[in-house]
Every structure is written in C-alpha cells, then in structure tokens.
Amino acid sequence: MAAVTLRGVVKRWGDFVAVKNLDLDVREGEFLVLLGPSGCGKTTTMRMVAGLESASGGDISIDGQRVNDVPARDRDIAMVFQSYGLYPHMSVAENIAYPLRLKRLAEADVRARVGQVAARVHLDEFLHRKPRALSGGQRQRVALARAIVRTPRLFLMDEPLSNLDAILRVSMRAQLKRLHHELATTTIYVTHDQIEAMTLATRVAVMNHGEIVQIGTPEAIHDDPEQLFVAGFIGSPPMNLIPGRLAGGTLTGEGFTLGGLPQGLEGEVIAGIRPDHVSIVDARAADLAAPVFSVEYTGTASAVTVVLGETQVAALAPRDCRPAFDERVGLRLERERLFLFDRQSGRRLRPPA
Q: Residue 195 in contact with residue 166, Cβ under 8 Å?
C-alpha cells in the first residue's frame, strides 16, 4: 500500500492551466475517486501521479518520496485505462503474464500467479482465448488481472468502465468493490460518472476547472454539498436548483413564495433540494402549485416534473402517481433538506449560529 501526496501541483500547456495549485492527500489503502466533468483536470492529475505527464510546478510524493523526476516505470504503479490495451495476438494467459515476464520471473512462478489472479476475477476458463473472442466485460477483467498480477503499491484507473454497457458496468462495479476489499491496495480512480464515484469510493474529490472544490466521503458529498457545482453534479436524479430572492426567512421566485426558511440570510440565492425530498400533495397542503411538464415511470417510483416559470422542479412520487400533462399539482418541500447557495459565488449559505 502507498500514500500519495500532492502539494501545490500545477499543470500548464502554454497559457492554459489545466491543474491549479492542487493539494491532495491519498491515504494508504483507500479508494479515492477524482470526479468531475470532461476537461476538469482529473485525468491530467492522475497522469502526473503516474509519471505520464510532468508537473509544471509543485511536488508529488509516494510514501514520502518525491517522484517528480522518477520515470513512470520506476514508480511501482499499475494502470487500467478506458481502452483495454490488450495484445490481440496473445491469449488471455499471455496478456496477464506479460508484466511478470518483463521482470524475468521463473516460468513456474508466472503460471502460478496467473492462475491465482485469473481465479480471482473469474477468468479461469478463458485463459486460452484471444481478446477478440471475449466480451467487453471479460476484456476489462483481463486488463484488471494484468494490473493486479504485478502486486503494485498503487492502482491508477482512468474511466475503466466507460466502454461497457449499463448492465456490465453494474457488474464490474461490484467486481472492483470486491477486489479493493480483498487487496486493500491504494487506488486512484478517475471518472465523470457520479454513480461510479458514489458506489466505489472511500472518499470523493470533486474537481472543476482544475481545482478540487470539495473532498469527503460519498455520504458527505451527497448530503452536505459546500458548493452549488457539487450540489448540481452529485445525485441521480439531479438536485432541483430553484432561483429566488431570500428575505426575512421567505424565498420568493417566479410563480412561488416559500416561507419558513432560516432567518439572517438575505439576497439572491439558489435553493437546492433533491427530488426525493419533494412530495406531490393536495394543493391545500402544498408549498407551491405548478403545471406538470412530464411524468417518468421508473419501476419503483414516478418522477414528476413541474414548471415554475423557466425552472423545472422534479419530485419522486409513488409509482402509481400519474398526473396528466399540464395538470396543476401541489408540491411540498422538506425544509430541513433544503440547501441555500449564493447565486453569484455558488458557495453554500448557512444561517448564523
């Protein structure tokens, strides 16, 4: 296992700054996910840890050793990429064994370790096959096995599941979760998929515009967002974001007035609330009423979306709740589950103590 530390790390290409003065501590044995939209700097950060990109500034350390000038091959890191990177002319067994043969291990040791790792990722019966004879999920398991067989001190994974279909992604997430539990190897995992981040991570570092905007456990990131960007990016379905003006504990916006909010906060805000904290109720007991824009049946619930001026607000309702298009329905919002963000800066607003 390895601990990884980044201090003031910067990556520039000419005038463009991809990573800005980034500080990060990855603990021994944890599964840290770098999460963010395309172009936020997450893959660049991981490639600098790997030694595939040089840092323009700052220090990168693995187990207390500064590795900025250490070649990638000497960092004892295994990588799994979005593209499987398998050798098409080699069998599954030969692909898995390749890094061991580069180390000139005895053939008996190579065969033993390949067999052990293949069993761990359920590839025993496919060892003689070529990659072209495998499914996408099986190929990704070969790539994982090739990384695991080296017993590195650090795994780096760059969107390894993005080429798989939805059902395979669910299965492979479970495989990765189990493997980390068994191996306890420090892992840095890059993804733009917040479901992957929430289900896999020990901690999530949310990135935007080359910076970490919040880091914490999946529960903390989901339940206590510090930034409007984090609130809107995390959650499926996404959080409702409702603009309005807050004064005297009352939020006023286009087509609604919502009282009972914290005192001591004033100004132009964005109110955030997740759909599962919004209920469809009788108009007489509602906080607001609005026409139905759409109803989506999900199997376990109905996602009902209404329109407040130019803002759409979604509620998760019981599966048998099916209001008609344009029908006016009442919504009740759980006040204790409502977040307030400054509209200009995006920072979380909290009532004075």
A: no
Q: What share of the chain is helix, strand, coil (3-state, %, to 5)?
A: 30, 35, 35
Indicate the length of the chain as a whole number.
353
Q: The tokens of 110 are what?
A: 């190579």
User: 105 phi and psi, to 5 degrees?
Assistant: -70, 155
pLDDT tens, position by position, 238-286: 999 999 999 999 999 988 899 999 888 999 999 999 999 999 998 888 9
pLDDT band at 199 (very low <50, low <70, confident <90, very high): very high
In 3D space, the residue among 190, 220, 177, 226 whose CA is nearest the CA of residue 32 turns out to be: 190
Q: How far is residue 270's CA from residue 4's CA, in Å, rounded to a whole number?
A: 36
**Which residue do the tokens 């790539």 mark?**
143
Report which of residues 20 and 123 the model is more confident about. 20
Secondary structure of residue 117 in the 3-state scheme: helix
Pair of tokens at residue 288: 């607001």
Mark residue 143 as left, alpha or beta (left: phi above 0; alpha: psi -120 to 50; beta: remaining): alpha
Q: Which tokens in the block code for residue 274? A: 């997740």
What is the rounded average pLDDT of the residues 115-131?
90
Give bridge partners of residue 62 from the DSSP assignment: 4, 65
Q: Give me the phi and psi of 258, to 5 degrees please.
A: -125, 115
pLDDT, mean over the chain = 93
Helix/strand/coil for 336: helix
Helices (H), 124-225: 136-148, 166-183, 194-200, 218-223
